[in-house]
Amino acid sequence: MSKAKHQLLALVLLGTIALTGCGGGGDTDQSSSEAPETRAETKAPTQEGPLAEPKHDAAGQGGETSSAKDAGEGGRDPGTSAPTTTDPLPNEGTKRPAPGVPTNPDGDNSVQGFGTEAPAEDRVEAAVSLQAFLDARATGEWEVACSYLAEGARDMIVKLGERVPTLEGADCARVLEGLSANVLQPTLEEAAQIEVISLRSEENRAYIVYRDSEGVVNAMSMVHEGNGWKLASLAGVPLE
Known about the structure:
The protein has 240 residues and is of the alpha+beta class. The chain has one domain. The chain has helices spanning 3-7, 9-22, 66-71, 120-138, 142-147, 151-161, 172-179, 185-191, and strands spanning 116-117, 195-202, 205-211, 217-225, 228-231, 237-238. Strands 1, 2, 3, 4, 5 and 6 form a 6-stranded antiparallel sheet that branches. A hairpin with a 2-residue loop joins β4 (217-225) and β5.
């Protein structure tokens, strides 16, 4: 495990708590939690800030990424582009895993088989939310970062803060800042370099699947509540 991965271990453990709450799906025997409130039809908010440049086409089909369409050759348009292709994936609407998503023979594939592959529009929307959260965390905009978290994730952070004397009674932003205090700035910036390759959704629950800066495929749980897709966990859990 790299030094960056070690430094993010605490956040990954917190993310795992929320991720397991979303439950399994697909063809596995794992049970899933009850779905949150009915999905709204509005879009996720966007925030200004630097967005990570995707390393290659997420679909593996040669499609143009939204960053290329929105920002052109000279760079990306902050807050409007997402680290994923805007083209439909070849497995859209099916239970088949997206290209590039690893599966585990005779192992746990509850994320890979959860629900069905979401439409490109939903995947782009969720990718914008994830990228904006990671960017806000990397730049220390804690209130902005918390705005991309689902209500359950924000409540979890506040409850964790109650266990730390210096954070008792603090809101989501202050606790998130405290949890990130020992993570080096380059590590947070590296964590924001992602490429979204899949969104597995079922009603208003989903897993967003992405490659990190080291090429490892991770998944984070999301819910669609209020004004769009929001994160139900703090960090990705590797699928390989």
